Amino acid sequence: MYFTRDTFSVIGTGVSLNRMRSATRRRESLFGRYLFMYHPEYEHAPIWYDPASPYHIEGGDILVLSASVIGVGISERTQPAAIDRLAKHLLWSEDSQVRAVYAFSIPHKRSFMHLDTVFTQVDVDTFTVHPGILGTLKVFSITRGAHEGETRISQMEGTLDQVLASALGLPAVRLIKCGGDDPIAAAREQWNDGSNTLAVRPGTVMVYQRNAVTNDILYHAGVNLLEIPSAELSRGRGGPHCMSMAFWRDAVK
Is the pLDDT of residue 237 over 80? Predict the structure, then answer.
C-alpha cells in the first residue's frame, strides 16, 4: 500500500485497475480489484482497465488534468498499447466524461519512471515540470475515431505549455521548473520528487520539505505549500502524488 496510486487510478466515476510492470508487484492490484468488486459504495463503478490485460500501465503515469482531459505517460512502466486500450474505454463509454487523452512520451529510465515524477498539476493553469524534459517531450492526442471503438491519434505541435493550454482550453498555463534554472538543483530535487506534488485544492499542494529550492520557487509563485518531512519516504522513490489516490473530486468553480 506504499504507492496507492500505482495499482488503481480513479478517473471520473470509474477506475483503472492497473497492471504493474513488475511481476512481483502485480498482486498489489488485488486490493483495488476486491474493493471495486465488493464494497457497497464502489462495486458498480465502471472499470476502465483490467489488470488481466497483457499490457502494463501504472497509476503514476495517469494524471487527471480536468473532468474531460486525461494525461498518460508513455514511460518505462506504461506501454502505448495499454494507453490505447484505456483511451478506447474512456472515450467511448457512456459513463465517461473524458473527451481527450494526451500521451506524453518521457525517457524510459528509473529516474523518470512515471509521468508524475517529472510533471504534476498544482493549479488549474499551473504545473511543476522537470526542466530535463522540456524541448524533447513528444505529446500525442487521442480522441474518438470515425467509427465506434476507434481512436484518432495526432502528434501535437508546439511547446509543452502551448500543448497544455490548448488541451485544457486556457489562454495560457504556467510551468514552474523543479530546481529553477540550476541544473544541479533540478537533478537533485527531481530525484527527491520535487516535481511530484499533490494538489488538495487548486493552488494548495503537498510537497516534500527537503526540496528547498523548488519549494521556494513555488512559494514565490503564489502556491500554498503543505510541507511534509521525507527523510525516509523519499527513499522509496515516490512523492505525495504517488502515495495518494483521490476517490472523489469536487468540481472546480
Answer: no
Coil, strand or helix at 213: helix
- Out of 39, 242, 244, 253, pick the active-site residue: 242
Residue whose cell numbers read 475515431: 145
Q: Could you give phi then psi for residue 84, rounded to 5 degrees?
A: -60, -45
Active site residue 242: yes
Helix (H, G, I), strand (E, B) or coil at 202: coil
One-letter amino acid at 48 equals: W
Question: What per-residue confidence (pLDDT) applies to 88?
Answer: 97
| CA separation for the pair 21, 152 (Å, rounded) | 26
- Is the pLDDT at 190 greater than 90, yes or no? no
pTM of the model: 0.93
> With 0-12 CB in 10 A as exposed, 13-18 as middle and 19+ as buried, what is 252?
exposed
Domain extents for the chain? 4-178
The pLDDT tens digits for 100-110 are 999 999 877 76
Task: For residue 253, name the pLDDT band (cuts at 50, 70, 90).
Answer: low
CATH number of 4-178: 3.75.10.10
pLDDT tens profile 9-25: 999 999 999 999 988 88
Check if the beta carbon of residue 214 is closer than 8 Å to that of residue 179. Answer: yes
Residue of 124, 117, 116 lying closest to 204 (CA atoms) = 124
Residue 77 DSSP one-character state: S
Strands in 198-201's sheet, in edge-to-edge order, are: 198-201, 204-208, 224-228
